[in-house]
Amino acid sequence: MRNIVITLIILISCIGVIKAQDSTRLVLSLEQAEKYAVEHNRTLQNANYDVQKAQRARWQALASMLPQVNANFDYQNFCGYSMNFMQGVSIPMNPSGTLGVTASMALSGAQIVNTLMSDISIDMQDISQKQSEQNIIANVDKLYFSTLAMEKTVDLLTESLNNLKRLQEMTDGAVKAGVTEQTESDKISVQVAMMQSSINSTNRSIEMLYNSLRLQLCTDVNCEIILTDNLDKLLSLGEIQDLLSKDFILENNYSYQLLEKNLELSKKQITLSKMNCLPTISAYYQYSAKTYFGKEEGMNMTPPNMVGASLSVPLWSSLAKKSAVEQSKLNYKTTENTFNDTKNSLLVQDHQLRYNVTSAYETYLIQQDNVDVTKRVFDNISKKFEYGRASSLEVTNASTDIINAQNNYLKALLELVQAHIELRTLLNISK
Question: Is residue 309 domain-resident?
Fold first, then answer.
């Protein structure tokens, strides 16, 4: 029985260790990485808070037009003082308390416009939140693709490195047997070192990419991230070609939507400036109840009920209000010019990104073929070198070519991925 208890304790401890390890490890597909970033990224959380703050500000603007009710209680004690009149008449000033309730409401054109402007502000914050989410997903996609591409490059370079090491061992054996010179082995060893250095450099780049991914996911710096998707599966060349056939609809772009709302907001500013020239109407009702503490009632001049209303009409402000209206109009024209310039810029950006995707796609296909060719050349020369029909110089050149080909392929792949994501973001098209 004792052994069974000990065994159970050990199992529970092991399960606790496993759970602790899992808490610092993330196994993610691309879709899971995007979802995780949307749920945990603090930039998106702040964007959501901004939307909530805009909603609260809208209610504040709306509440300023609704009745406001205040209550107050005053206590007075004149310490036995009596108010003396002629012929010995006196009125005691007894301790008293007064309860007052006041209901008031004020309405102006500026309040109405402020409420409408608050609605626009909410829309802008909502668009900004969607744009932030879109940017976070785009960044996660770029980092995910880049990491997979780097890891694939390491695998291909490692395969070539193993072939070089095999040739080096063969050359070292030939040198020991006196069949070839030491310089032949030295040349191969230099190529081995260069290939290993390229692999090490790529591994360091991979670690930097993982760190960037941790920042986007808002995970712990020591969290282990494992990517489960395959690069060939994710890189859909057909999808890239289909994207080029999509039309650019300006109204779907978040930047355009924000500028449109900003232009609308600037127009409301003109209306707000004009409303400051209109009258303000206010009204109130006040109820007061006065009581005396333990003594007879003294002089009470407080009316229990009172109502009032006022109309405030601005007559002359030394042209200050007129200047404010003119300034709002100038600001609107400035915003309108910015809106039109940005609209044209987005249209130009659409043409440029389509060109970038097309060019990157063609370059990627060329570099992909180039990798296959250089690999076949390297394998062919390696076999010839084994049978003495190729020199170490040819092996050196072939290994250098395959490193350059891998680097060019990686560069072309990343440019294609980036161009595709940027065009997809501009068109605001989901995968």
Answer: no
